[in-house]
Amino acid sequence: MNRRILQNGIFAVVGATYIVTAVLWAQTTANDVPAWQSAAGGKRAFEVASVKPSKAFKLPNFDLSTGNAVAPGGRFSAGFPLLIYITFAYKLQQTDKQRQALLAMLPPWANTDFFEIEARAAGNASKDQMRLMMQSLLADRFKLAVHFETRDEPVLALTLEKPGKLGPKLRPHSEGPACPEYKAVDPAARPEPVKAGAVFPPQCDVTLLSGEREGLLRLGARNMTMPLLADTVQLNGSQSGEVDKPVVDRTGLNGTFDYTIEYGRTTGPVPSPGGNAPAPPEATFLQAVRQQLGLKLVPSRAPIRTIVIDHVERPSGN
Fold this sequence. Notes:
Layout: E1 2-5, E2 11-14, E3 17-20, H1 35-39, E4 48-54, E5 75-80, H2 82-89, H3 96-104, E6 114-120, H4 127-141, E7 145-160, E8 170-172, E9 207-213, E10 216-224, H5 226-239, E11 247-249, E12 257-264, H6 285-293, E13 295-311
């Protein structure tokens, strides 16, 4: 079993269901604008765009995650509820509590009704530039108005277990194989089986979850920054029942990294992040992060920039 986590978890598809796992944790400029948004060049808009109600879920033509791989061909195509488009446009990675707070600000249809969006950019835009275009489209067609508030909140800080020392399965990307040329991947296609001994995952800038054997999972990514790894720890730790707060990067590690971890499918109550309970025969997700990556979670506090919905309407016609 192989399945693609659309990088660090905007959604996972399981049959006909979708799981929204959208913490807004981002460095900001002096004007309280996220650094990624400033780097993407400010306000942008699609050259042409179509929005129409749909009865069915439609996979996007590129992953809508918090990473910033090139968007192939400058085209956007997907069929989702409004909630998913908001998480993409504003680069949100939320805890369950934050997601529920966002849902409470939206009308029920924003999480139940599907809208198919087909849009084209002028040129081959990056994902972050596509996000800015989506912000403009949502404001125009859905009359979406938002603002952000920064609040000091409890978080889990991702830190090194031992100062200056990486775990055995975490290494700088520069020490591993080079990334292949970026190619568009059909999200609807079944992933190719990962061959024994092959580079895992074969593509860079994507987080891949693979079933190795009964009860054991393998998670990996190549060319990942530590903030994106913190996103992944939050997502998978939440799914395993081990993380219930935003995870922020405080490793002090710059650059990009390759990693793989193997862990059991177990779930359970949220444990103390600093606990040293004996590991089961197959480690839980957080135990694997600690033992294999040399990283741990430490309770802390941090300013969390949170989205607030001011206004939204059903979309206008094309």
